[in-house]
């Protein structure tokens, strides 16, 4: 049991980081790559082949081959420009050989034109950014009578070099046309916005059959999504229905609205009229408010007598830019900012992460020796993808990325994938290996966390370890003073979510649509971040967190640990009660009065009538026949229809999902309270705030008379103007940001 616990635990590592205390920074004092280990490469920038004007080479198709040790790279798969230019940078691990060999060949005859060797120890310079790139030159070749020179530049560098993202690495030399799918990239997903189409009512509608009262419903289409209202009857129907869509910037789409007359279920539905409205023409709501209800003329289909009648729709058309469109599950959310930039909170800090490497990776194909792995990191709308290390179970990336952080109560998600697009694109989907999630409210500022995180994957066979991912994480505060220390008490979501809240069903429905839009947007990049990768990164959390553990044991152990960790709390409480004994008397007096009134008045109050069968409670007023059949079915089931069994199984899963979510939420609240009392938070400020609030409450409780305290519920019941605030208070916002153990895999 201990081995399993150690296997799934996070281990500290000691890499040679550039930002380590007491260590020399190999990248210089101004470098941003201080969370990764230095990797030295030999870069060869092949520019072009130049003809010798004194010699006629005849017909020739030049190809450059570069060899270092057992690694060979070539330009044979690269397109040749009009001036015989390639402009391609090749990268080699400098420890793989002592001599660099550059050969110029003829593709047609496969004969050697020119060749030159370079000793790594003495003939190749070292470049240290931010120095400019070394100028290419004509290197002396052995044979210059063939009519060609080779223009190139060679130097030693690291991953800090600006050619690193576009270099062709020697481990991927067999990758030909799909080499672009192995390069590191940073993606910025367009921000998302809600589009609200409120269908209020219709006026002067005419049915396709003038002798019949129209039964009309309205459909609205944006992109591939179509929503509709209920059917309403009459020439002036009323709906008051909100149809909410998701759109991405720059908000250039068009909403197509149609009025459809439904005759009956057996007849074809006919279009009464239609309307097109661009998103740029709608009312932009940048504060929590509602768009004005306006009348819009509907383009009516021509009648049989060639007359047209101008029907109208009363609608509210707006782009709700004050909302945050959730694309992730709330437990894994990395951003809470609204669409409009003017409502963003102040910049809180800087998140930096160094992706060092991985060990012991396991792929889905056991016959394959190595894995072509890369890592995708997602925070906010910025996605970072490392280069693909080909055919290795212990890859080394040593790439560093940074994000602007506006909220500490967020989660950084990293996923590692097996690249299946390096030899033939779209041949197969990239296979997810596992994910690692880091909760930022557990990360202290100005501290480097160098750890090896287990890559966990939950499947039908249980929790499986797919390897370990080595990371270096650092968070640095940028905001100071009031902006920093008031951040835990501000609203977590934008104000519009509290003034005009959306239902959980609407949020989940819009979240699924937001994921589809992000998949489509990131698939149009070069190289594309594939749909299966985006879908896996944004996948919601599982609901099996506490399904196999005993909640009573967890609560008992947590309380026992808290009691042992806080022995001084009991001592200070006893001293406080001794110094202020009137608090004990007031408490006992209040408890005596409460119990006396509770049990004494119970004898005098009349009893309620005994309810034998509450049909409404048991939902027997309109019973579901299938549920009754399932209730009286034998065990094992005698139903032979597979579809009925599948439907019942899905219904049981949906019913059991709700108490599991409730248990998970209750456990999260307990973990927040536990973190508050054990100094487990950001810079231990949470517990300090708790102690300060408790002291202030104790002083107020002791010094303010009881009759004055009783005025507050009366004032709250009368709802005076200063108390009319439906926004969450600062204490609630502070408690919501406390860390939990919810983020596991």
From TrEMBL:
Residues 21-139, 171-293, 326-453 form the C2 domain. GO terms for molecular function: metal ion binding. PANTHER family: MULTIPLE C2 DOMAIN AND TRANSMEMBRANE REGION PROTEIN 12-RELATED, PHOSPHORIBOSYLANTHRANILATE TRANSFERASE ISOFORM 1. Belongs to the MCTP family. Keywords: Calcium, Membrane, Metal-binding, Repeat, Transmembrane, Transmembrane helix. This is C2 domain. Its main location: membrane. GO terms for cellular component: membrane. InterPro entries: C2_dom, C2D_MCTP_PRT_plant, MCTP_C, QUIRKY-like. It comes from the Eukaryota. It comes from Arabidopsis thaliana x Arabidopsis arenosa. The keyword Membrane applies. Signal peptide: none annotated. The chain crosses the membrane at residues 563-588, 688-709. SMART domains: C2. It is a multi-pass membrane protein. Residues 1-30 are annotated as: Disordered. It is found in: Membrane.
């Amino acid at each position: 049991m201990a081995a399993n616990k150690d296997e799934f635990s996070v281990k500290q590592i000691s890499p040679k980081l550039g930002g380590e205390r007491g260590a020399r920074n190999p990248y210089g004092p101004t470098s941003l790559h201080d969370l990764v280990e230095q990797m030295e490469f030999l870069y060869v920038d092949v520019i072009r082949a130049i003809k010798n004007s004194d010699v006629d080479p005849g017909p020739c198709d030049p190809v450059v081959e570069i060899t270092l040790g057992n690694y060979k790279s070539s330009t044979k798969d690269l397109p040749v420009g009009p001036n015989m230019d390639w402009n391609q940078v090749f990268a080699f691990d400098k420890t793989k050989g002592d001599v660099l060999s550059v050969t110029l060949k003829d593709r047609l005859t496969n004969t050697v034109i020119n060749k030159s060797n370079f000793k790594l120890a003495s003939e190749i310079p070292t470049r240290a950014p931010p120095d400019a790139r070394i100028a290419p030159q004509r290197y002396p070749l052995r044979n210059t009578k063939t009519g060609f020179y080779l223009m190139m530049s060679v130097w030693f560098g690291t991953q800090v070099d600006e050619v690193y993202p576009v270099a062709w690495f020697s481990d991927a030399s067999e990758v030909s046309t799909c080499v672009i799918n192995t390069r590191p990239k940073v993606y910025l997903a367009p921000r998302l916005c809600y589009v609200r189409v409120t269908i209020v009512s219709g006026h002067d509608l005419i049915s396709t059959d003038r002798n019949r009262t129209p039964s009309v419903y309205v459909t609205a289409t944006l992109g591939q999504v179509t929503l509709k209202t209920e059917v309403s009857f009459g020439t002036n129907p009323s709906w008051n229905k909100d149809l909410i869509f998701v759109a991405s910037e720059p908000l250039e789409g068009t909403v197509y609205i149609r009025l459809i007359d439904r005759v009956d279920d057996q007849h074809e539905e006919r279009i009464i009229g239609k309307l097109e409205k661009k998103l740029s023409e709608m009312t932009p709501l940048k504060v929590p408010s509602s768009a004005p209800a306006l009348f819009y003329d509907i383009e009516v289909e021509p009648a049989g007598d060639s007359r047209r009648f101008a029907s109208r729709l009363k609608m509210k058309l707006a782009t709700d830019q004050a909302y945050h469109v959730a694309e992730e599950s709330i437990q894994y959310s990395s951003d809470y900012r609204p669409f409009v930039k003017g409502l963003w909170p102040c910049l809180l800090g800087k998140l930096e992460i160094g992706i060092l490497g991985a060990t012991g990776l396991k792929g889905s194909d056991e016959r394959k020796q190595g894995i072509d792995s890369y890592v995708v990191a997602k925070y906010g709308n910025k996605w970072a993808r490392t280069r693909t290390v080909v055919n290795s179970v212990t890859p080394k990336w040593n790439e560093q990325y940074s994000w602007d952080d506006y909220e500490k109560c967020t989660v950084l998600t990293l996923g590692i994938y097996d690249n299946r697009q390096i030899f033939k694109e779209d041949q197969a989907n990239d296979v997810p290996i596992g994910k690692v999630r880091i909760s930022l409210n557990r990360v202290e500022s100005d501290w480097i966390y160098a750890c090896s995180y287990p890559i966990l994957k939950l499947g039908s066979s249980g929790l499986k370890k797919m390897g370990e991912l080595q990371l270096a994480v650092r968070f640095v505060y940028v905001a100071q003073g009031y902006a920093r220390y008031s951040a835990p008490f501000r609203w977590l979501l934008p104000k519009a979510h509290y003034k005009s809240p959306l239902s959980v069903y609407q949020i989940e429905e819009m979240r699924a649509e937001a994921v589809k839009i992000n998949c489509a947007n990131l698939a149009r990049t070069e190289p594309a971040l594939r749909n299966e990768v985006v879908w896996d990164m944004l996948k919601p959390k599982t609901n099996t967190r506490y399904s196999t553990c005993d909640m009573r044991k967890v609560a008992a152990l947590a309380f026992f640990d808290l009691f042992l960790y806080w022995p001084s709390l009991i001592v200070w409480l006893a001293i406080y009660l001794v110094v202020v004994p009137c608090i004990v008397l007031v408490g006992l007096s209040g408890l005596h009065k409460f119990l006396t009134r509770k049990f004494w008045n119970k004898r005098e109050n009349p009893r309620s009538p005994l309810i034998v069968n509450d049909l409404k409670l048991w939902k027997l007023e309109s019973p579901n026949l299938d549920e009754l059949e399932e209730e009286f079915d034998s065990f094992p089931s005698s139903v032979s229809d597979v579809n009925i069994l599948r439907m019942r199984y899905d219904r049981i899963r949906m019913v059991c999902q709700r108490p599991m979510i409730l248990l998970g939420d209750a456990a999260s609240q307990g973990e927040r309270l536990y973190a508050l009392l054990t100094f487990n938070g950001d810079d231990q400020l949470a517990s300090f705030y708790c102690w300060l609030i408790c002291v202030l409450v104790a002083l107020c409780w002791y010094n303010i008379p009881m009759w004055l305290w009783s005025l507050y519920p009366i004032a709250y019941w009368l709802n005076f103007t200063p108390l009319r605030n439906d926004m969450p208070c600062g204490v609630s916002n502070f408690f919501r940001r406390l860390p939990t153990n919810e983020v596991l895999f």
